Amino acid sequence: MNKLLVGILGGAVMALGVSAASAQTLNDVKSAGSVKCGVHTGLAGFAAPNDAGEWAGFDADFCRAVAAAVFGDGEAVTFVPTNATERFTALQSGEIDLLSRNTTWTLSRDTTLGLTFAGVNYYDGQGFMINSTALPDINSALQLSGAAVCVQSGTTTELNLADYFAANNMEYNPVVFQGFEETNAAYEAGRCDAYTTDASGLYALRLTLANPDEHVVLPEIISKEPLGPAVRQGDDQWFNVVKWSLYAMIQAEELGVTQDNLEEMLNSENPEIRRILGQEDDSTIGEGLGLENDWVVNIIREVGNYGEVFDRNIGAGSPLAIARGLNALWTDGGLQYAMPIR
Ligand SMILES: N[C@@H](CCC(=O)N[C@@H](CS)C(=O)NCC(=O)O)C(=O)O
């Protein structure tokens, strides 16, 4: 056989192999009866077991939104706690179908780990927290030269920390841990002058400290941390289900469709609302995704729109009380913008 033919055949076999082997997640999820969703081991407001032992939080609710889109049931989720290091292997190995865990979208992760980010559900940035009782004169990260800084391995945090101190000609002593609990315990015990992670993580962690009021998040944000859900590479159908679940939540907020007014909205005459809720007679909004036409209705009924999920878990209606900031809708000066659902 000539080389060209071998190449073409090889390519065709590979292409078939890839699509047959990996473009299966939606079917696998449907036959398993639940979405296996990788979450944090316990980050208040994002994903942590509540008093009733149920997973609660912004990232946990995104798992529920995808389950609602697929099954019409937000509880059809198997939550799999993952730490910063094991989260990517869990996705690669098929232990989880979806990673919904304060994970930053970067070039290297997107191109070398066999995964694909489906969007950004939280625009974040890295910050520093200090104990203001121990360090009353520090009010800027630029005063941290010589500091011992608690940081977790396997994170973008560790890399940005090195860049920031180098760029500002400052020295520091990294105190690196693998686990979240260890890092937090070391900080609380005063083994580090500062703790660094995503600002959202700092606010969540502060709530769990013995004296939250003693701890101050410094004003500098030293990086971009676009956090979002990720899926395995090579399965466009599942990627689309996850990506459009996020867009649907954002679009529902833009259209004013909420958990409370959903029934009313099902009778709306606004064509955009009718379309997103699958209420047009010739609706096909589920077809290309392999879902029913009421998949958005199910997401809103089960978890609410993007703003509701934000407020309830991490925003104004929660102990974290994080401002919408960059996560406001584009119509309110923020960056959250859904592609058109039509
Ligand atoms: N967004 C950053 C940091 C995310 C991250 O893993 N942060 C730490 C601090 S909040 C964490 O979640 N640790 C918990 C653990 O590994 O169990 C990333 O994707 O690398």
Q: Can I get a quick summary?
A:
This protein is of the alpha/beta class and 342 residues long. The chain has helices spanning 3-22, 25-32, 58-71, 87-93, 107-112, 156-167, 180-188, 199-208, 236-255, 262-265, 271-276, 295-302, 306-313, and strands spanning 35-39, 48-49, 55-56, 77-81, 98-99, 115-117, 122-124, 126-131, 147-152, 172-177, 194-198, 215-217, 225-227, 230-232.
Question: How would you describe this protein?
Answer:
The protein has 342 residues and is an alpha/beta fold. It has two domains: 23-120 and 239-332, Periplasmic binding protein-like II (D-Maltodextrin-Binding Protein, domain 2); 126-223, D-Maltodextrin-Binding Protein, domain 2 (3-Layer(aba) Sandwich). Helix content is 39%, strand content 16%. Strands 10-9-11-8-12 form a five-stranded mixed sheet, with helices on both faces. A three-stranded parallel sheet has the order 4-1-5, sandwiched between helices. Helix 3 (58-71) crosses helix 9. The termini are far apart. The site of glutathione (GSH) has 19 residues, from helix 6, strand 11 and strand 13. Residues 40-41, 43, 83-84, 102-104, 152, 155-157, 179-180, 197-198, 201, 225, 227 line the site of glutathione (GSH).
> Strand-residue fraction?
15-25%
Secondary-structure element sequence?
A: HHEEEHEHEHEEEEHEHEHEEEHHHHH
Cofactors, ions, other ligands: glutathione
Name given to the CATH architecture of the largest domain: 3-Layer(aba) Sandwich
Integer count of domains:
2
- Provide the gyration radius in Å: 22 Å
The tally of strands reads 14
Terminal-residue CA separation: 48 Å
Please give the share of residues in helix: 25-40%
The helix tally amounts to 13
Provide the CATH superfamily of the largest domain. Periplasmic binding protein-like II
Secondary structure class reads alpha/beta
Round the mean pLDDT to the nearest integer and report it: 93
Largest sheet, in brief, is:
5 strands, mixed
Shape: globular
Q: Order of strands across the widest beta sheet?
A: 10-9-11-8-12
